[in-house]
Each structure stands twice: as structure tokens, then as C-alpha cells.
Design goal:
mainly beta; 3 helices; 5-stranded mixed beta sheet; globular; 10% helix; 48% strand; 153 residues; single chain; 6-stranded mixed beta sheet
Length: 153
């Protein structure tokens, strides 16, 4: 476990990779991490929606985070993972390349998203921090699904 120490309150984050970039989310939002399961596509769904899978009898929508962030994506393989997360009152599967770390971090260690970033980036990225020579973006999960889609589901 990696740790960043200061006197402020510490929270735990789970770090993951999409391509060569690292991101993290609040660990309390993540319910489980599971291997890739082929998803059944849904007609007329956004490009970042891989489809749905059966999770212990429940239908779980799968969001390709790479596609949602506008990064290059590839077809999922057995090496990809699904982070089952609770977002805005519903459970969603988030497809990522790999989960890498659990990080303990204080809010003071997080730098604001740079002004050079587009508004789209600031929609998802809550802040950025450096850890052991790596730059990791803190993601706001509540912004992953647009309001209209969250309400429709």
C-alpha cells in the first residue's frame, strides 16, 4: 500500500490504468473488482457503453472509461478488469485496463486541474497529484454518466 502523510484527514483511493495514463477514484465507491466478461451490446447506446452483463442475476451496464474520457480504446481482453462502482444511486461496471494500487492521500496533496485542460477534462478530473514519480488524475465518478442517461436508466 502506498501512503502520502500529512496532518489532514486521509482518504483511500483505488488507482487504475487506461492505456499509459493513471487515474484513481474514491475506494468507497467501488463495490468489487472482477475480470472482463463479454458484454451484450444495447442498440442505440453511446459509443462508450460496451453493453450489459449478468452480475449475480442483476443487469449491470458496462462503461468503457477509456472511450468515455476520449482516449484510444481497444477490444477488451482477459487482462482487462471491471470495477463495479456505485454512481449516483445506481451500480455500473467501469471497464479499465488494470487496477494498480490502493493509495492513502490527503486532500491537500491534490492539485487543481490545470487551466490548460478543456472543460470536458474538468468535467471528469477533480484534481491531479504526483506520487512516486507518477502523475495520477483523481476522477469524479458522479460525472461519468450524463444526467439525462442516469435519469433514463
Amino acid at each position: 500500500m502506498t501512503e502520502v502523510q500529512t496532518n489532514a484527514a486521509v482518504r483511500e483511493l483505488i488507482a487504475f490504468r487506461i492505456g499509459e495514463q493513471e487515474f484513481c477514484v474514491d475506494i468507497m465507491s467501488v463495490r468489487e473488482i472482477r475480470g472482463w466478461t463479454p458484454a451484450t451490446p444495447l442498440p442505440r447506446s453511446p459509443g462508450y457503453m460496451k453493453g450489459v452483463i449478468n452480475l449475480r442475476g442483476a443487469v449491470l451496464p458496462i462503461v468503457d472509461l477509456g472511450a468515455r474520457f476520449g482516449l484510444s480504446t481497444s477490444d477488451p481482453t482477459a487482462r482487462h478488469v471491471i470495477m463495479v462502482a456505485h454512481i449516483g444511486g445506481r451500480t455500473v461496471g467501469l471497464l479499465v485496463d488494470a487496477v494498480s494500487d490502493i493509495i492513502q492521500l490527503t486532500d491537500g496533496a491534490v492539485q487543481p486541474t490545470p487551466d490548460v485542460a478543456s472543460d470536458d477534462v474538468r468535467t471528469f478530473v477533480k484534481g491531479i497529484f504526483a506520487l512516486e514519480g507518477r502523475m495520477i488524475s483523481l476522477i469524479e465518478l458522479d460525472m461519468i454518466l450524463p444526467e439525462t442517461e442516469a435519469e433514463a436508466a
